[in-house]
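Field reference: sequence -> structure
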Amino acid sequence: MRVGILGGGLQGCCVALSLAERGIKVTLFDRNEQLLSRTAIANEGKVHLGYMYANDPSHSTARLMLQEALAFAPFFTRHLGLAKDSMTVSRPAAYVVHRDSQRTPEQVSRYLTIVHALIREASEGRSDAYFGRDLSDEPRMWSAAQREAEFDPEVALAAFDTPEVAIDPVALAGALRDRIGADRRIDIRLNHKVLSVEDADTLEVALESSSGAIRERFDHVVNALWDGRFAINENRGLRPNRPWLHRLKYGVSFRLPAGANLPPSATFVSGPFGEVVSYGDGLTYTKSHLSEPVRPLA
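Structure field:
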């Protein structure tokens, strides 16, 4: 069996490792000069436990995110041989209620309590699941003095401690590239732009490379593209059954001068505020912009 994976970002690389572990030969295509070179490293690295989604009263987003967060560290421990406590993680995130937030401090507090109960239930008996961190303590509201020491009290109406952390995406990408490059079951094809996937005796992938147009056939194809995913799927008759939002994330990362005080990791909920992630000697600030929804085709 041969499997073609379109896109060498985090999703495509994780699929390649999972299939190779099962003895399946994989060809991994990416249009860039190296794997994990764009969105995979241009992010704050947050491994969300679900605390962020106070605008979802059904808690379905939180349930999905916390399950994925609890699977994150075990996956990379198994595939990369990294100890759970050897990954570079940020300071735990404080969740801050801005004065212009869409939710009041009381609403955010209730939401965090509910999500924390879901986390405790899902993580029971899985002490190593989230980087070996203790997830038992409920988010704690900061005192007025503690909040005023870090934020403008007229802007930050409340703040809560959580155990949620981010992982350094650049370090993770480097370890992943090394691991995938050493696996003989994974054939890496860089500088290959995917054009289409068509029916033949099997599935035929049309690509554009530095040497010209080529076609390759596979028993199965995994579409893990960032750009062009919907166009490829549409040509295969695969359409989203619900609206999709495209999210554009802006970010800046920098190192602090020696001796500077490192601010806390802080996520401002809920609204157009962004978040700060503090690592050992630097910061990442990110802010998202959502486009108009992409509606399913009739």
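Note: The first strand starts at residue 2 and ends at 6.
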